[in-house]
Amino acid sequence: MASLDRLTRHPERGSDDRDDLFALLDAQWFGTLSTVTADGQPWAVPMLYARDGERILIHGSTGAGALRAVAEGAPAVFSVMSVQALVVGHTTFESSVNYRSATIRGHLRRATEQEQAQALDTLSDAVIPGRTAEVRPMNRKELAATSACVLDIVDGDWLYKTRTGWPSDATASNSGEHPSWAGIVPVQTTYGQPEPAPWVRASQVPVPASVRRLGQTPTT
Question: Which regions span the lipid bilayer (predicted)?
Fold first, then answer.
């Protein structure tokens, strides 16, 4: 059985430095939550998240049955990946991607009533920094309809892995007799021009600072 607490393939690409893990988590705001439901069925869903110190915050509707099961203590894994470049090798076998990835295992718990509002604000500001200061606070009905969950980042329960650099050269890939281009193609994610909703009159309600800053922030 493969070990879940260490890398078995290319272990040299791993890191146990929390700064590497945190840098990846802070650069992204979506990942995949996976678990097994009470009836033994596999379950996975992409979710927005935020790192809040030594923990991951996620949220969902209180009507989401599977998320309720996870929040009540079922074992879970949260995965995040960022792709920096396509690695175009001399052969398809030698081709790959440059990336950073992380998996965090543990047991989710529900945020307490005292934690709930702050946790949801932290999630919102992870996606659009400063937005919560521009809009009204969530009301009691909205808070009651939303479940915020916490996954602690515990040493021994997370793995970080990265790949950087070039593909193998023609000699290493046995491609000397079949010349072909090789290299990397950087992958970038950028924000487009903000588009107001049809009912928003731009002359009366300008694009807020939080949204304008998105176009000034590099993404990966």
Answer: none
